[in-house]
Amino acid sequence: MQGSLASEMLMVGHSQAHAEHPDHRVFGILMFLVAEGCLFLGLFMAYLAYSLTAPIWPPEGTPERELLLPGINTVILLSSSFVIHKAGSAIKADDVKGLRLWFALTALMGAIFLAGQLYEYSNLEFGLTTNLFASTFYVLTGFHGLHVLAGLLFILAVLWRSFKPGHYSAQHHFGVEAAEIYWHFVDGVWVVLFILLYLL
Amino acid sequence: MTQLQDHPRLAVAPKVELELPAEPWWRFFTFSTDHKVIGIQYLVTTFFFYLVGGALATAVRAELATPEADFLGFERYNGAFTLHATIMIFLWIVPALTGGFGNYLVPLMIGARDMAFPKLNAVAFWLVPPSGILLLASLFIEAPAAGWTSYPPLSLISGKVGEELWILSILLAGTSSILAAVNFITTILKMRMPGMKMEDMPLFCWAMLAASVLTLIATPVLAGALILLSFDLLAGTAFFNPSGGGDPVVYQHMFWFYSHPAVYIMILPVFGMISEILPVHARKPIFAYKAIAYSSLAICFLGLIVWAHHMFTSGTPDWMRVFFMIATMAIAVPTGIKVFSWLATLWGGKIHFRSAMLFGLGFVSMFVIGGLSGIILASVPLDIHVHDTYFVVAHLHYVLFGGSVFGIYAGIYHWFPKMTGRMLNEFWGRVHFVLTFVGFNICFLPMHKLGLMGMPRRVAQYDPQFADLNWISSVGAFMLALSTLPFLVNAIYSWVAGPKAGDNPWQALTLEWTTSSPPPHHNFYGDPILLTGPYDYGLHSKETLDYFAAQLQTLRELALAEAEPTSS
Ligand code: HEM
Ligand SMILES: [Cu+2]
């Protein structure tokens, strides 16, 4: 089939031997996020199964949830997606200072989100085992919170590295890109969570 | 072997076999990032688990040889069948096929130097031993006893420690599979050698792609279910506990959303290996390449939408049962396409009945039986009758043992020369095959009848009317246990002292056979070249093949000459 190709290849073959490998890490991160997405999707489906088959949802006696604080939190997290995107554009223009600025801001917003969530937990009138809704609420938001925390640490690590001279440049900034993609993902998950847990 | 020399036109390997010096043996005990080392690490580790799982199976059958629970006793019996099934699925078949063969073969077959993410690959492997250690430790602490399906509420009351060990072990194994899947998908889509299009890939790579997509999508959902189960077990929530308002059926949906695709994760790579092995040993091009390739993708898609056929008796509403029944039966179509393509490949071929081929043919025939009992189970009225009986046990062993395990053995006999550079002994290979084939059928064929008679699964004690068939089945099981011995001795002896294999003992055409056995660190001498299509058996003239061989020879000499100064 490819016999004719063979002799051509023989000739080009040798020169390519030491060419640099293309970088597939961004693709790899995307694949990994497909898996993460399926994990959240599975949990969302379980939640929907509970909420749609229950006669009353949330079950009777579940205390009202306050919307103001989680609402503010949502706005903060969503805006941080735009902020981190600025960081990505900055490094593409070789602007390391801009990168640091926007990453620091994103980290701050992420930290505020987490603090807000902890504050909300401490003021809620139900606990993990109060009823089925309470359990799903804590497990879903807690699991998402862990992802925010992981993203935050990731961002801080990239920030730390950006102080090494020449570590990130317009051509080489996989860490920045990965952190940004991951952060967008965590945001996207929150939007669905917010709708499921607070609005529906 | 003499017949092979009658076919000089099939030789593509260089005539003089030049090799780099062998790498040290202790590389197998390191955090190596070489996909070939990792592949062999997987195969050897998982084979060890297979032996443990097999010992447990033998204990289970010893208990069932008589109607009374007089060997293990009830409690230990529950632990034994739970651990047997868990080990076989999560620590043997899944990691051996994807981690073992997938790792070893995919980069070689697509002409890549390694996997896309070699370090991630090593991490994925090194998650397997801890997973196994947790599971084996449970044998000495408290064995999980709720079956490999671990359905709540049973799993919530059958022993906290054992159950949690089971969950942690599966979470580790699952993480390992997911990381491996990320690696396979990226490698297959992005790392093919220049000039190799998707449709030039060997069929094994298509099968690995489909299996990896399933792993990537389905495994996380199982992880989600197990995390929730852990909360129920340890934190007092009631996700799956009806007494606290939860719903055990939600667990079943999440569990089977993984575990049905998992059966395809455990069979697609075997389909792929069989599509490699049959053409080589029948000396004929594969029949209907595209049909086999795309039917893997069709199975991948359909496999994701049939899970509730395991839940026909779980109070599933009628409309859902009908949907899942039809979808399940539809899978028989792409599966049938493969089976008929294999038969057409064999038809009129010049078949060499070597051990690899014997296991390959054993696979085709046994898998068909398992597929047929699968269709019976897929039909709601019949399944209501035989659900949770030995009929299900018979079905799953025909697909998992007759299918996956036969396939793994076929793969080992076929690629052992490539992996180790030495030939396995043919005579003992055939002894191994006959013992396995006969033992397997004696053990599992009677289970169909037992199931139809109404014998329930997962019991240590049963009605005396089932005694005779059970006794026969246990005899078959002991024969199976025995059949492993000739293989073990053969494999160990041949690895050390078998005759040298040379580059291409089977005169095969896929890329892994154009390099030395075992291949050098970065797989190829110089750059790999596509001389022929993967299944062009009998399509090239002698002159062309001689010309190819000469090209390879020159290329290798060049590459070795270049390597010399640095390696000495
Ligand atoms: C034509 C293809 C197949 C069909 C139609 C089919 C159908 C089914 C059905 C309906 C059941 C549920 C029986 C019950 O619980 O009452 C079942 C069980 C099972 N099947 Fe298949 N199957 C097929 C192929 C496979 C393959 C390829 C494998 C694995 C390699 C497999 C492994 C299993 C296992 C492990 C179980 C038992 C699960 C348990 O522990 O309950 N099947 N099959
Ligand atoms: Cu199934």
Textual characterization of the structure:
The complex is a heterodimer of chains A (200) and B (568). Chain A has 200 residues and is mostly helical. Chain A has one domain (37-199): Cytochrome c oxidase, subunit III, four-helix bundle (Four Helix Bundle (Hemerythrin (Met), subunit A), Up-down Bundle). Chain A has 6 helices and no strands. Chain A has helices at residues 3-16, 25-53, 68-92, 96-123, 132-162, 174-199. The longest helix of chain A has 31 residues, at 132-162. Chain A starts with a helix and ends with a helix. Residues 1-19 of chain A have low confidence and may be disordered. Chain B has one domain (2-567): Cytochrome c oxidase-like, subunit I domain (Cytochrome C Oxidase, Chain A). Chain B is globular and about 75 Å long. The two termini of chain B are 37 Å apart. Chain B is mainly α. The complex binds protoporphyrin IX containing FE and copper (II) ion (CU).
Can you give the helix content of chain A as a percent range?
over 70%
Apparent shape of chain A: elongated
Gyration radius of chain B, in Å: 24 Å
Give the strand content of chain A. under 5%
CATH H-tier superfamily of chain A:
Cytochrome c oxidase, subunit III, four-helix bundle
**CATH top-level class of chain B:** Mainly Alpha
CATH superfamily of chain B: Cytochrome c oxidase-like, subunit I domain
Give the N-terminus to C-terminus distance of chain B in angstroms.
37 Å
| Count of runs of 4 or more consecutive helical residues of chain A | 6
Give the SSE order of chain B as H and E letters: HHHHHHHHHHHHHHHHHH
Average of per-residue pLDDT values of chain A: 89
Spatial extent as radius of gyration of chain A: 22 Å
CATH top level label of chain A: Mainly Alpha
Poorly predicted tracts of residues of chain B: 1-11
The backbone outline of chain B, from C-alpha atoms, is: globular
